[in-house]
Amino acid sequence: MSTRRGLLAAIPALAAAALALPTAAEAQSVTLSFGPPPPPPYARPVPPPRRGYVWAPGHYRWNGRRHVWVEGQWIRERRGRHYREPQWVERDGRWGYYPGRWDR
Q1: Where is the signal peptide (predicted)?
Q2: Region of residue 61 (phi > 0: left; psi between -120 and 50: alpha; otherwise: beta)
Q3: Which of 26, 30, 50, 67 has its CA 20 to 30 A from that of 94?
Q4: Which percentage of the chain shows pLDDT scores above 90?
Q5: Which are the contacts of 65, defined by CB distance < 8 A and separation ≥ 6?
């Protein structure tokens, strides 16, 4: 039982490490797969535009045991790049999380 607890305790740390290793510009695709689907997103109004920033909408992330809502935020714009917002995609009955990233 302690081995199982150790493995379960390591999941959030491993997930955080997987997200932290590649920079947003270098990462082609970092995907984390989970069984349960995320809940529907909250309907939040988008704030007025802010010069030099891109709005990253709120989304659910997985904390190792459940989905947790992350509020939207302003991210400093990167010239020559397009921000792709985080998304959940279902494949073969499992849900994959694609974190937000900057594409060329």
Answers
A1: 1-27
A2: beta
A3: 26
A4: 37
A5: none
